[in-house]
């Protein structure tokens, strides 16, 4: 378990005690860098413990295929005549994010599809956040260890950031939304994304990321969202009254106090691109929409009220040809903390209910490979290769060994070692020995075959030489 009392880790890591593992009072989330096998293993062990924590509330599982975003004139996926024959996943993707079917327009005339966005506007907003956070990390040299997404909806941003969380140095993502149906759908889509991208994610550099979701009202500050490194809220404030929107932003900048806060809202002037009438809101459930001057004036007010933040001029996202004069469909604010100010929000203030937690298992493949290598070397030092044990079933005699006997030498908690697949471990050993050993399966038992021509010393030398070349 990671803590500042560990003399080995304390020498390597800068431990920051946030205690954000909700109820796990003796655990730190500052897993830090540089990363070594021990750091990874202990982080994964701590992660597994966090995932066993009981949730405050279990959401009713919503049907993803029947989920209806509250968008104007959103097409019904049950009416199959409007879409090509595709599988359910493709339909869902096209429905929410696809060209000509996303939330950015209510135009149905195919001749007017030039007004839609490519890539879809939500993807562009996610990319804006990704690039902004990346630049913040580079310029400030501060890891975004704790990232909060307020008004997360169906967790599009969470899925869009999975591939860069390791680069950010992220170890916790906290998401909150007031709509249980959206949260349920978001959790399912996030889990599916993590499963589908598991091989890629496990190959990325970075410590594992604990991704928690909460049911709650963003107007009520929760201490678990305080003092985070970054808070993001995309296209959320317009869904509440302007008074409440200003209260929310004031709470973030004055109470939660993240190092960086990014929020966006529609540019009302851009609605003309969609053929909408003056004063008509983009979505039925929008309570307000700001033009460019109104949004800019709001940011100026925030700069005066919160001088400890540097608030940049509005950024614009999503632009179609011939409408450059309207700047962009979404307008975003970027607020960077200039002074070290800590929140005074008491820890007993926890209005949000935890409803889900999943793991983004970054770096697990490299850790598993290194642990298997160490186990194989230790096993080689101790194993006896007697001539009497040779098998002569092929043209070249060989020794056959059960892979489980090798994996028994792995020095890691069961929470991590149990995740290493035997067949994958055999492939690792093949690679690290330059394919001097081979897979061997007898009666369903996985093992390795070592030719008589190979000596222990030769194999050890090969493994160690390849390790230095990595």
Any key phrases for this structure?
15 helices; disordered N terminus; alpha/beta; single chain; Rossmann fold; 470 residues; Arc Repressor Mutant, subunit A
Tally the helices.
Answer: 15
The CATH architecture designation of the largest domain is 3-Layer(aba) Sandwich
Average pLDDT, to the nearest integer?
Answer: 83
For the largest beta-sheet, the strand count, sense and barrel status come to:
9 strands, mixed
Low-confidence stretches: 1-34, 70-115
Q: Tell me, briefly, the overall form.
A: elongated
Number of strands: 12
Order of helices and strands: HHHHEHHEHHEEHEHEEEEHEHHHEEH
Structural class: alpha/beta
Distance between the termini: 28 Å
CATH superfamily of the largest domain: Vaccinia Virus protein VP39
